């Protein structure tokens, strides 16, 4: 696959008349109430450049810097890794080592996080406390255990105070950990879904205070940097789609009309058996792998709006309507399926049975309360009641503090309680989470995720096995604006 370079994107710019609008907000492209700008001539989906490990090692140079790309019909000034949006796809196998030399060509500090990988949080591995100043270079090295679950992961900046701006600006890329036994398919596709907002000059629009409080949703939703690209297939194919929600705040309720879709994998690897689905919901940071068995039909991959709550009336009602992504479904890609071709597909082999932490002894239980509200609402002082706080157990993030201490080799149960009126997708680094209770519902099958949505005023119980990797890392809301405003805490495994 060719990299999505500027030249590539210029070709995209030749696409027919798009629905451009310089609206009241001065935005030159708008999704309006739920509709993506339409292009009369659709372009085929392209995929980021793929870098594959050799002899169990992948060496990569990543430059995070301002970049000029073509988005739809317009030239845009974004931020990107290696001038490409998304950045290159890193393809490795379990047991491999990834070395990334990260150069910061931005004006703000940055760093790199390998979301979902089960690797050490220390030193120059997945260490969230690293800060790479503008002009500096930092050499990361991530070593995957030999039994690392195959699946779809991703990388993105994680510098406190800059994470939402940098991810919204275009800094993200996919990581694929290959299967140990291949699955019988006719084609694999990778789709990195992201969103961004641009001003009239094609520069990244700043998120205002209200958007930061709610969690910004970009006005343009992209698939691999493209607006509404086209996919083509023949009937009778079996495709594997690896989908990443790289939006800083937007939830995606995805459906693909007219096709048979099965869920193969969620966040941290295969389900024991693929599950028939009509829709999947991805909170920011979540990934799914879908098996799409094609029928002759024209279909659309659509993202329906998700109600993720709103701020309380004490905010003055400035954010109305509950959900930000209001309106109808967005069309992300179209799929055109031509008459059948003969394929030689074997049945999909089963995944390994999933570990069930309910069968293992518990060493500790904790309650983590996610809070968002004015100081007055949260009982934090009596000022004007207008300062918003985003907290975990009543405190905003402090990188110097150790909030929770766990013992390596033990299993814990965490009750995630949301005391606010909006959803928060909680993400824990390094160790995946098994969802035990989702509200009042007991989740009977072992369900593993690394981002778990905690609904407004809701409660979710998870278990975590701190099997290995001592060190200190973080858990946080993956609405990156909330993380930047303090909804993040540290956990130290010793
Ligand atoms: Cu995808 Cu801590 O982040
Ligand atoms: Cu992460
Ligand atoms: Cu949040």
UniProtKB/TrEMBL annotation:
GO molecular function terms attached to this record: copper ion binding; oxidoreductase activity
Annotated ranges, domain Plastocyanin-like: 70-181, 384-491
Keyword Metal-binding among UniProt keywords: yes
Keyword list, A-Z: Metal-binding, Oxidoreductase, Signal
One of the Pfam families matching this protein, by short name: Cu-oxidase_2
Signal peptide: 1-24
Alphabetized PANTHER family for the sequence: MULTI-COPPER OXIDASE (PTHR11709), MULTICOPPER OXIDASE LPR1 (PTHR11709:SF2)
Name of this protein: Multicopper oxidase family protein
Source species of the chain: Paenarthrobacter aurescens (strain TC1)
Lineage, broadest ranks: Bacteria, Bacillati, Actinomycetota, Actinomycetes, Micrococcales
